[in-house]
Structures are given as C-alpha cells and as structure tokens.
Amino acid sequence: MKRAPRRRPAHFHLIRNDLLPKPPAPRECQPCTACCDGWLQIRVNGVPVHPGRPCPHSTGSGCDDYKNRPVDPCVHFICGWRMDASPLPEWMKPNDAKVIVLFNQRTWRGLPVDIAVPVGRRIPPRALNWLQEFARNNNRMLLYSEQIVENGAYTQQQTVSAYGPLEFQQEMAEGARRGEPLS
C-alpha cells in the first residue's frame, strides 16, 4: 500500500541559511592608527613609541608596511574595539572616539578591570560616560588616564583615575603613588 506524502504543519518553515543572521564581519584597524601613534607606550622593532613619537611605519591613516608588520606587538595586539564579540559600539573605534580600550587587563577582588587610554590628552566625555556606564552595568572596574603635557609637548607620563567602589579608587590611587603601571 502506497503512503500519502506527509504534509508539514502550516507553522513549519524550512530554514534557509541565507536568511539566518550572519555573524558580524571582523572589524578592521585601518585607517585607525591610534595604537601606532604612541598613545600606547610600546616598542616596535626596538624603537620606542610613545605620545609625541609614533611608530616610524605609521602614516597617520595606516601602516606603510602592514603586510610585514612585526608579530609583537603589532599582529598580536587587538584593542577592545576589534576583539571578537566586542561590546563597544561602532562609534567607539579609537580614531573616532579618541580612546583605546583594553578589556580584562587585571582583576580586583575577582572583578575584571578594564583600562582606557586617551587618543590625545584626555578621553572625551561621551566616550568616558559610555565606559563608566558599561562598567557600572556589568560589575567591572575601570582605570583611565590623561596624558601629561609640559611646555606644549606630550610627556611619557599619565595621571590615572579609577572608576568603581571607593575601596577600588583608594587602592588604585595608592598604587599610582607607588609608581605601579596601569596593567
């Protein structure tokens, strides 16, 4: 005896792969060069890079030798905006928001501590407010800095502020007085 073909219920639909949400495309660095322009104090092929002294390969809108850039720090470094599943919105790309965010750089009493470094003298209020709200809503601590300028030039020094409970702020202030690095 031949069976009749089964009918699908009216609410049943075949899932087409082309209709499923696609994962977001990886975020690209260029034309951002905030990490290359000295806001993060690094060494590239032995050359010190710091505020006022960008990487010798930075053009200000990219890297003049991107395909051959060194593995450390260039290839290995992923800022908070570029990391997979970044919580940072599109407008927080470092060259636009004027801040480089480094997630989970340390812990304090078991809680993650994020670090925010200005691209320029200080983090603009819109970006800083967003980071503080993110920290508050996600039970995270935040350290952020301001570049010190002397005689019209950036120095390699920064002032550090802490956002979180009073105890966190006090412990971070004490660490800064002792000269401890941010991360």
Question: Can you give me a brief rundown of this structure?
Answer:
The chain is an alpha+beta fold. 19% of the residues lie in helices and 25% in strands. The protein has two domains: 29-77, no CATH class; 78-178, no CATH class.
Order of helices and strands: EEHHEEHEEH
What is the SS-derived class? Answer: alpha+beta
Number of strands: 6
Let me know the largest β-sheet. 4 strands, mixed
State the shape.
globular
The parts where pLDDT drops under 50 for at least 5 residues are: none
Fraction in beta strands: 15-25%
Helix content: 10-25%
Verbal overview:
The structure is a single chain. This protein is α+β, with helices and mostly antiparallel strands and 183 residues long. A four-stranded mixed β-sheet has the order 3-4-5-6. The termini are far apart. The chain is built from four helices and six strands. The radius of gyration is 22 Å and the shape is globular. It has two domains: 49 residues, no CATH class; 101 residues, no CATH class.
List the helices and strands and how they pair.
Blueprint: E1 42-44, E2 47-49, H1 71-75, H2 94-97, E3 99-108, E4 111-118, H3 125-137, E5 141-150, E6 153-163, H4 166-177
Parallel strand pairs: 4-5
Antiparallel strand pairs: 1-2, 3-4, 5-6
Task: Fill in the keyword field for this structure.
183 residues; alpha+beta; 2 domains; four-stranded mixed β-sheet; two-stranded antiparallel sheet; 4 helices; 19% helix; 25% strand; globular
